[in-house]
Structures are given as structure tokens and as C-alpha cells.
Predict the structure.
Amino acid sequence: MDFKNIKYEQTQQLVSITVNRPAKLNALNAATISELHEAFKVANMDLEVRVIILTGSGEKAFVAGADIKEFVRFNQIEGTELATRGQQLLFDYVENLETPVIAAVNGFALGGGLELAMAAHIRIASENARFGLPEVSLGVIPGYGGTQRLPQLVGKGRAMEMILTGGMISAEKALSYGLVNHVVPQDQLLVQATELAKKIVKNAPSAISAAITTVNAGFDVNQNGFEVEKQAFGSCFGTADFKEGTNAFLNKRKANF
């Protein structure tokens, strides 16, 4: 697969997507957002792929923000279009992807980088990771879902402090806030992400997809999460995965999903 700004690698049931603009600290420009969308789309459509690991090239940055040069002269309409297109193509798209996404955060995850990590379903950070939404220092606010997802993950008060000060927090503080699930040494980041992915792979892919949908529904004001859960729960009974999982349990063997 030919990409300019990212790397796409597949090992059996796992896909690794790496933002690969180290000279720009992996900053997100329009081309990179489009390539990421295409990479996630391809991985999600591949029935063999069960988990996607997202990371950044090098040790300095996961994604250090958006490429400001691209929109510095935008007007109000163009700014709204920028946020709308970015959310549709990448951030909302990743959050609602059927295939689970693990963000392996190395170094700086700032602005759009933190927003991208928050769109993933699980986050693991290296000890040198730093998180922040510094947009207010540029006279703008987070536009790729940051004002919505950060309060969901860390609470309103902590999110307000991070957004209004524009400051960064350490990996350990991010862990204590609930922003990330695990903090590991830099050289163990992808190892731990892979180990977590392998645990997910053991489970039923149709149930994994249903779980993502129902958890997200609970944070969507336009949906009743409990109703979505009941319907998704019932739908699971009609899947081959349910038959395999229950038969394996009753026959005291490992399920083969």
C-alpha cells in the first residue's frame, strides 16, 4: 500500500498505522488526514484484521498537533469546514470504527494529536509522553472533538483546566486522570500495545464491534445507550460467534473465532 505520510504494516490479525512525518513531529496536514482515513478504511474492511495499533514515527512525537501553515489564513467559513471535514474523515471515523484501535502514544500528543489519541478506543503511553490542547494560545479552540472527548475521559474540571491553560501534562498525570490506560517505558510501548491487542484478538469480533457501538452510544445525546445495548445484545444471539463461543465454553475448549 503506497502512502506518503504514513506507514501501513500488517502482521496476521494486527495492523500497525504509523504517522510518518518526523521532520514535522508527525503534525497532521490535510494529506495525512486523508491517508489515515484510507488506511483505517482498508484495515476495517479486511476481515482478517482484528486490531489496529496507531502510533507516531520516532520517539519525540505521537502527533504534535495540526500543521498550522495550512490554515493560518483561513476565514470563519473555511475554519468551520476544516473542523467538519477533519471530524468526519478521521476523528469521528476512528471512534466509531468496528475494529478496535489502540493508540500507542510516544512523545508529544498535542492539539490534533491528543484529539486523535482520544478518538482511539484504548490509549497506552510511553513514560516520555506529554499531552495537551494548546489551541487557545493560538487564538482558537480544539476543533477535532477535543472539547467533547476530553471531559468525557477526565471530567469537566480537569478538562477545563487543560483547555483553558493550554498546558501539558505528563504521562503519569494522564494515567491518574484516566486519559490513558497504561504507562510503560519507551522501548516497551509497542510491545505492550501488541500484547493488549493479542488479548482482544482472542475474543469474538462481532461482539467486540457491538461493544464499541454500545459504549459510544452512551456518550451520544441522540441515542439511548441502554436501548442500543439491549438491541445489540439480542443481535449477538444470531451470530456464528455466539454459537462458537457458547459451544466452546460448554465443551471446555478454547473458542476459535
Q: What stands out?
A: The two ends are 27 Å apart (CA to CA). Residues 6-201 form a domain with the 2-enoyl-CoA Hydratase; Chain A, domain 1 fold (CATH 3.90.226.10). The mean pLDDT is 96.
